[in-house]
Amino acid sequence: VQLQASGGGLVQAGGSLRLSCAASGRALDSHTMGWFRQAPGQEREFVAAISRSDGRTYYADTVKGRFTIWRDNVLQMNSLKPEDTAVYYCAASTWKFSSYDGFAPSSMYDYNYWGQGTQVTVSS
Distance between CA atoms of 69 and 77, rounded to whole angstroms? Predict the structure, then answer.
């Protein structure tokens, strides 16, 4: 197992959850760690990414200001909304953040390793 996500659960709107992702094997050599989520009937979407070398971060607009990703690939989620309900996946990428054009790995195709997913349910 390269990535193991944990920490999901059921929370009321406005509450908080913390997701963790334990990396092993070749995933430890990745340059970027990220989180994605997938709601029923929808495509998997990017949530957040962090550079393991310098801690630069990149967030989806829908979570900016509410979610924080840390270098150990912990995702702190505050002010949760019902629309945040989804299965959350941690992922690792060999792509780096660019220092020249602002590129940050945010497509699921940029990521080489995936965890098994953890369910987050936010009730209204």
Answer: 9
Residue 82 has pLDDT above 70, yes or no: yes
**Coil vs helix vs strand at 66:** coil
Report residue 29's pLDDT band, with 50, 70 and 90 as the boundaries.
Answer: confident
What string of DSSP letters covers 47-85?
A: EEEEETTT--EEE-TTTTTTEEE-TT--EEE-S--GGG-
C-alpha 22 chain-centroid distance: 12
How far, in Å, CA of 73 to CA of 49, rounded? 9
* Closest alpha carbon to 50 in 25, 67, 26: 67
49-60 pLDDT per residue, tens: 999 999 999 999
User: CB neighbours (10 Å) of residue 107?
Assistant: 11
What are 115's two structure tokens? 């965890």
